[in-house]
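ENTRY TYPE: paired fold submission
RECORD: A
CONTENT: sequence, then structure tokens
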Amino acid sequence: MILYLESKNSMIMNNLILNASEKTPYFKLKSDGNFLFGGISMPEDAASFYFNIIDWLSDYYRNPKKETFVVVSFRYLNSSSSSMVLKIFNAFKRLQETDKTKIKCTWYYEEDDLDILDYVDQVKQHADNIEFEILPTDEIKAPVN
């Protein structure tokens, strides 16, 4: 659920925090422009799972920070999830085009996972106006809550 707190003259955007489950990734989307997400993504209904995330990003789009930092580290994405993550990066691409923010993405992948690396390359080509750093790691772990 996305909540807003009212202040005197404007709405304050809350963070969106979703903890990982066996089938869903974690998302830590902070209104200060620091986004962290990854893990395993194979929800029963990817569109429903990702709806609130994309909706939150639409709200962030209205008033982003000058810099947006995205850190991604997926261990597994099923095909419907990979489509939804591509939609997220499409939103990032459109946001970058507004010149309201500079988006930088660091994407970690397990060094022996060539499928994820291929997918990251596809995302990078699609969101070609975003600065990417793609880094291998020994093991992808969910952050401590």
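RECORD: B
CONTENT: sequence, then structure tokens
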Amino acid sequence: MKASETIIKRIKEFEGFSAKPYRDSAGVLTIGYGTTRDADKYNSISKIQADLLLRRDLAQFEATLNNYIAARGYELTQNQYDALLSFLYNVGSIKSGSNLDAAIRQGKPKVVAANLEKYVYAGGQKLAGLVKRRKYEAYLFATSPSDIIGAILAGVGFLQF
């Protein structure tokens, strides 16, 4: 599977754009749309370069997630895949044996969603931006694609997380 364009857009929104390197709330050097790999190699980048770096990094996380789900025999919807990919891009991994991993293994979307919402701390502080992001990822994981389309058409504010 691959990231949808929708989740790429959402990741950009959650990460925000920075043309210059900065230290994120956990102290990690970051540039563009949340790129940490080789962030020290750039003094300044454009949004086009940032998009390329994001997609490069997402390709690595797609491979990781595809291996993770194949090794466990999971079948995910595009929404579930996108939710986990966004999570991986932000956190870096799903720890084997964690409550999140166990919930995914058990195939319980609402339990997975509840576990996703626990990852809201960076640098020892609860961050509003992470709360918003995890609510979106949790909603995305627990909702079928047709429900999301219906919510958009009905004007339901899930995008306001």
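NOTES ON RECORD B: The helical segments are 5-15, 47-72, 78-91, 99-106, 109-116, 128-142, 145-154. The longest helix spans residues 47-72.
STATUS: closed
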